[in-house]
Amino acid sequence: MTDVRHAIHTIETGGGVLRLAPEAPLKLESGGRLIGVEIAYKTYGRLNADRSNAILICHALTGDQHVASPHPQSGKPGWWTQVVGPDRPIDLNRYFVICANVLGGCMGSTGPSSHDPVSGRVYGLNFPVITIGDMVRAQAELVSALGIDTLFAVVGGSMGGMQVLQWANDYPERMFSGVCIASAARHSAQNIAFHEVGRQAIMADPEWRGGDYLRLAVRPEKGLAVARMAAHITYLSEPALQRKFGRELQRDGLSWGFDADFQVESYLRHQGSSFVDRFDANAYLYITRAMDYFDLALSHGGVLAQAFAAARDVRFCVLSFTSDWLYPTTESRHVVRALNAAGVRTSFLEIESDKGHDAFLLDEPVLHGALQGFLDSAGEARGLG
Amino acid sequence: MMREDFREIARMVRPGARVLDVGCGEGELLDLLRREKDVDARGLEISADGVGACLARGLSVMQGDADSDLGEFPGEAFDYAILSQTLQAVRQPRKVLSDLMRLAERAIVSFPNFGHWRVRASLLAHGRMPLTRALPQPWWATINIHLCTLRDFTELCADLDLRIEAAVALSDRATPREIDPTHLLENLRTETALLLLSRTHHVAPTADAPTRLFD
Hints:
By secondary structure, chain A is of the alpha/beta class. Chain A has helices at 132-145, 159-170, 189-204, 221-235, 238-244, 263-276, 281-293, 304-307, 329-341, 365-382, and strands at residues 8-10, 15-20, 26-27, 33-34, 38-44, 54-58, 84-85, 90-91, 96-100, 151-157, 175-181, 315-321, 345-351. Chain A has 2 domains: 5-187 and 295-382, Rossmann fold, CATH 3.40.50; 190-289, Rna Polymerase Sigma Factor, Chain: A (Orthogonal Bundle), CATH 1.10.1740.110. Helix content of chain A is 33%, strand content 16%. The two termini of chain A are 25 Å apart. The longest helix of chain B is centred in the middle third of the chain and has 11 residues, at 93-103. Chains A and B meet through helix 8, helix 9, strand 13 and helix 10 of A and helix 3, strand 3 and helix 9 of B.
C-alpha cells in the first residue's frame, strides 16, 4: 500500500472531507495534476480492531456519499437504505461502510464547481477531464487516510460497478472481494450516444455560458433538466414505464397544446426539475465524460482478462438484470468471462426484473439475497465474526 | 435426504480438490463436497433461482448453460468436473463431454441407462416411450433429449479417448455397486450409471488459449 499519510492535511472521522496536502497533487490519467483535492465522504458502522471489515461503496453517475443517511438538501433517505443498514445485506452491525462523493462531483468533492486553489476562481471548464481511474485513485487516498490497508469489499452499481472493476485492475491487493452490479467494462456506442444527448442539452442552454455560469450567477437549469429527462428514460424499462403510466392523462381530456398532458410527461418534467436542485451541470458533463472514456481493456491490448490478472485472489460477484438495456447482461457476461479467464473466483447471476437499469436501487429481494449470501461467505473466509 | 449418487460422487473426489459442478441446481452436492471434502467448490447453473440459492449458501456459482458457457472457463482450471444427471438433457452431449475434459483433469458423469431391462421391457411390452423409476416423465414433458445406454456411453468415451477409471451402478432400491461398464450384462442391470473419466493422453493447453477464447 502507498503510504499517503504524509499527504493528509485534515481528516474527520464518521464522515467529512479529506483534504490532500497542496504538495501532494493527485495525478490524473490525462497527464495533468489536481492540487488541493478534497474528497467528501460518509462512514457508517464501526471499524474493527484489525481494520478488516471496511466496505467501500461506489456511487453511480448522479449518486453521492449519502448512501444510508438522509440527503442534506432534499431530506430524502439515503439512496441505498434497502441494502445498507443494520441487519441489511451490508450489515452495519458487522461492517464499516465508506462512501465518498466521486472526484468531479458536486457534493463536496473537488469538481468543476470548486475553486481552483491556484487562480482562486471557480474551475468551470478549466477543470481537467477526469476518468474512472482518477476517481478510484482519489478513493484509494481516502481509504489509506482512514488507516485501512485492505478493504473487505468494494461494491457498486452502474458507474459504481465500473469503479469496482477499476479497483480490481489498480489495487487488487487492497480488496478482498468485489461486487459489480448492472455495469460494464466499457461504455458502448449507445451509452456514449445517450450521454452526448445530455451534454448537448446542457451546452445548448444559453445560461450555460460556455461553462462559466457559476461566476455569472446563472444556471443552465433547462438544459440540465432535459439531460436528466432523457437519461431517466434509459434507467427504466419499457414495460415498467407502460405499467406505471400507460397513456394516462394528467387531467380530463387533452389540452390540444404542449402542456404535460400525459402522466409520463409530467413525471419526467418533475424528474428534471428536482434534479437541477441537487446537481451541477458541469459536473454532469465531466462525470458522463469519465464514463464514456471508460474502457478497462484498452490499456491491456484489448484483452480484458489481463486487467484482472493480478486479482486472482479477489472474490467477485457480478449481477445484472434481465430488463436493463442500458448495461445489458451481455456486458456483465463479458466481464465474467474475463474474470474466469484470469482465474478469479467469480459468481454471476442475471436477476429477473422488469424494472430496467434502476432495479439495483429498488426493492429486489433476489438482489438482496445474493448480496447477503456472497458477503456472508466472503466474511466467513475473511474471518469476520 | 441425501441423494445416493451424491454420496458416491463424494467418495470419488479427492479432498481439497478444485471442483466444478455443471448443472449444480441449488448447490446441495457442492455444499456436501465443501463440508466433507473441503473442496474449492464452483458451480454452473442455468436457473436464476438455483444460482440465487447457491449464492445464499455462500457458493461461487455462475449462471450459465452447459451447452454454451463451459467455454468461459479456462483450460485445466479444475481437478474434477461433475455432470450429475445432466448429460442427457444437454443439446450437444459429445461437445459438453469434451468441454468438461478440457477444463478438468477428471470428469464424473451420471445418467439414466436407457439399456436397463425395465426400459427395454417397458418399450417391448407397451410399444410406447418407457416410463420407469429412473425415467418417470412422459416423452412430452421430460427434459431428457439425448438419452443413451451404458454401451452407447462407453463407446463415446472410447471415441473421445477417455479412460473410465471407475464405474458404479446406482438404484433407488439397491446399494451402489462397482461395475465393469463394458460388460454387456451391466447394460441390462444398471439403472443409473456413474462414471469417473480421465483423459488417456494429457492434453497441455496452449498458453494463450484462454485469453484468445475470451476476447
